[in-house]
Amino acid sequence: MEASDEIGMQTRNLLREKNVLAFNLIGSPGSGKTSLLERTIEKLKPQLSIAVVEGDIATTRDAERIARLDVPVVQLHTGGACHLNANLVHRSLSDYNLEYIDILFIENVGNLVCPVDFDIGEFAKVGVLSVAEGDDKPLKYPLLFRKSSCIVLNKIDLLPYVDFDKARFYSDIENIDSNLKVIEVSCKTGEGIGDWVEWIHQIQEQYSS
Amino acid sequence: MEASDEIGMQTRNLLREKNVLAFNLIGSPGSGKTSLLERTIEKLKPQLSIAVVEGDIATTRDAERIARLDVPVVQLHTGGACHLNANLVHRSLSDYNLEYIDILFIENVGNLVCPVDFDIGEFAKVGVLSVAEGDDKPLKYPLLFRKSSCIVLNKIDLLPYVDFDKARFYSDIENIDSNLKVIEVSCKTGEGIGDWVEWIHQIQEQYSS
Predict the structure, then answer these.
(1) Exposed site from A39, A141, B173, B201, fewest CB < 10 Å?
(2) Is B67 exposed, middle or buried (0-12, 13-18, 19+ CB in 10 A)?
(3) Is B135 exposed, middle or buried (0-12, 13-18, 19+ CB in 10 A)?
(4) pTM for this model (two decimals)
(5) DSSP-H helix ranges across B55-180
(6) Residue of B37, B15, B195 whose CA lies nearest to B123
(7) CA distance B58 to B36
(8) Which residues of A touch B113 (CB under 8 A)?
């Protein structure tokens, strides 16, 4: 774990030096991480140079979806493991010319628990949740909320059809981190994607200045 | 891992001897495992004696939901770990008088990956998925489908509002295990719960005879 944290730190230093801003996207299977990336890349691509690292247990399906958007993508296979590790990510960076990348999105393995514990060299963690998962996630998985810089609450188009108590969701988050940024989006309708992209732009401007 | 499998085997032998049928429920956070248990217990309780082991990282929320149904429930905390282990489950059994239990439901930690690898002494694994998670889960998490005796596809009331290609879902499952039982349910409306409970009754009759 210590050696792994050390490699994560090396990755972060390397990315800092090359002025590459890296986000580590963490969420359950089916929370919409890849869909969020698709929407985000469409919006950011005209102004920024994007690359993606896709973490998956065994398939290349998500990387294929991203490759269609004509941005560089590397697929990492964990070979059964339930999270990306610092070493895998670090080695993948040699596939890129970091001089030409502004933002690197790292999509972790679909899992709300394990990925949170591993520093893979990101600048910031982003938690991705779907309203269909229920409003009790802050209560049940507080570590993700403590360690994330931003929570994307996805699939808000489903709100009329699911029992999701927003007041409770926000009040539980308030108890964990009252400054935590939460952005509601629907990758299906596009609602809220503008707010999310604006947040990325803000972070990117701070990071690059 | 070997020692853990050995304890799992001991649990299974003990439950076999006491004629207790144990199911290990595995699914993502928010797939509806606890809701499924609530619906199932309501239906089974008149005929069978039910007990529940709730696995969670830190909270007791799910156990509280089950306790309201007036069945014995033990809450196990994994202390951060992303799956139940055989030892925790084995020790929890001393809290029950197994002579009086017909069916033991063990709800694992919300996670599609890690719990699949750990034998906790169950007779059968049941995979719980929500249609909101998408139709690509068999492709991306094949091990769950290979190791489960039954897949419960939950939240079918959301089918009109999500992009879930049933044909693709079933065809991917067919490629993994053409005999795998899949039961579509909605814990919200109650649709399909009868089929699921009937499946449990069938297994229970085979197990007890």
Answers:
(1) B201
(2) middle
(3) buried
(4) 0.94
(5) 61-67, 86-92, 137-140, 142-147, 166-176
(6) B15
(7) 21
(8) 57, 82, 109-111, 114
* B125 three-state secondary structure: strand
Residue A177 phi/psi, 5-degree rounding, is -160, 100
- Dig out the tokens for B200 from the structure: 């449990």
- Chain B window 112-151: which residues touch A at a Cβ cutoff of 8 Å? 112-114, 117, 130, 132-134, 136-137, 139-143
Question: What backbone phi and psi angles, to 5 degrees, belong to B201?
Answer: -60, -45
Q: For chain A, what is the largest distance between any 2 Cα atoms, rounded to a whole number of angstroms? A: 47
Query: In A, which residues are within 8 Å of B132 by CB distance?
Result: 30, 130, 132-133, 155, 158, 162
- In this structure, what are the phi and psi dihedrals at residue A52, rounded to the nearest 5 degrees? -135, 140
* pLDDT tens string B68-105: 999 999 999 998 889 999 999 999 999 899 999 999 99
Task: Answer whether A158 sits within 8 Å of B155, measured CB to CB.
Answer: no
Are residues A30 and B157, on separate chains, in Cβ contact within 8 Å?
Answer: no
CB count in 10 Å sphere of residue A209: 5
Position of tokens 């999509």? A107
Among B122, B42, B159, B109, residue whose Cα is nearest residue A162: B159
Classify each residue of B157-188 as buried b or exposed e, where b means 16 or more C-beta atoms within 10 Å of its C-beta: bbeebbebeeeebeebbeeebeebbbbbbbbb
Q: Do A110 and B113 touch (CB under 8 A)?
A: yes
Across A158-194, b (16+ Cβ under 10 Å) vs e yields: beebbebeeeebeebbeeebeebbbbbbbbbeeebbe
Angle, helices A193-208 vs A33-44, to 10°: value is 70
